[in-house]
Amino acid sequence: MISYLAINLFIIIFPLLLSFESKITYYKKLKNVFFSIIIVSTIFIIWDIYATIRGDWSFNNNFLVNYRLFFLPIEEILFFITVPYSMIFLFETAKLYIKDNILQYNKTIYNIIALFFLVISVFFIDKYYTFTVFIFVSLSLVVLNYLSPHLLKSKVFFILLLFSYVPFFVVNYLLTSIPIVEYSSSAILNIRVITIPIEDFFYSFSLISLYISFYEMSLRVWKIKQ
């Protein structure tokens, strides 16, 4: 069966078909999209490889095409292309159709939250996935706070983050209920929402916020160069 490949297709099919829509003109920003994908996906894929070798999670060969690259199923690597492509597309769509408002912003508060996640990660150092994902949440907040603070002032950004949990829930439920991905009980807290480990909700936040942050940074850099 090729269930994981089908999930990747489900994730990207509509953003891909609508990339040339005249109002969004997503195709004009693809160099920025792929800049973000290269930077962020490389980091997460390296983590994924290490975690897979360590045994934090494993992949069910019954639902894969059984071709691996750097110890990962090819579908897992595709996941780090289809997800950011689609999420950034939704972000651009949201910016077009939702009126943005400036939100109250306090850099110190976000620094405290980042420090909080860094500190509590230490308490779960024996739960490798929990430990690592809390560090990544802390890192993503630091990146947002110092490199993309305008996103923390943007209503659209937070709406996108909240909305992203809809496709996240569908996709992660399929991945963990079939199951395509199986988590080691020693690597997580074993607190689940239906079949989804609670850590995945924090993982999603860090993943999407970093993709959007680096995408926005590249837009600014390209604009300055022009």
Walk me through this protein's architecture.
By secondary structure, this protein is mostly helical. The protein is built from eight helices and six strands, in the order ααβββαααααβββα. It has helices spanning 3-17, 30-54, 74-97, 107-122, 128-147, 149-152, 155-177, 199-225; strands spanning 57-59, 68-69, 72-73, 181-183, 192-193, 196-197. The strands form three sheets. A two-stranded antiparallel sheet has the order 1-4. The chain has a two-stranded antiparallel ribbon with strand order 2-3. A two-stranded antiparallel sheet has the order 5-6. It starts with a helix and ends with a helix.
Short description:
With 226 residues, this protein is mainly alpha-helical. It contains eight helices and six strands.
Structural class, from helix and strand content? mainly alpha
Distance between the termini: 48 Å
Spatial strand order of the main sheet? 1-4
Number of strands: 6
Elements, N to C (H/E) = HHEEEHHHHHEEEH
Q: Could you say which overall geometry the principal axes of the C-alpha atoms support?
A: globular
Q: Which key phrases capture this entry?
A:
single chain; 226 residues; mainly alpha; two-stranded antiparallel ribbon
What is the element layout, followed by pairings?
Layout (H helix, E strand, L loop, with lengths): L2 H15 L12 H25 L2 E3 L8 E2 L2 E2 H24 L9 H16 L5 H20 L1 H4 L2 H23 L3 E3 L8 E2 L2 E2 L1 H27 L1
Antiparallel strand pairs: 1-4, 2-3, 5-6
Helix pairs in contact: 1-3, 2-3, 2-8, 3-7, 3-8, 4-5, 5-8, 7-8
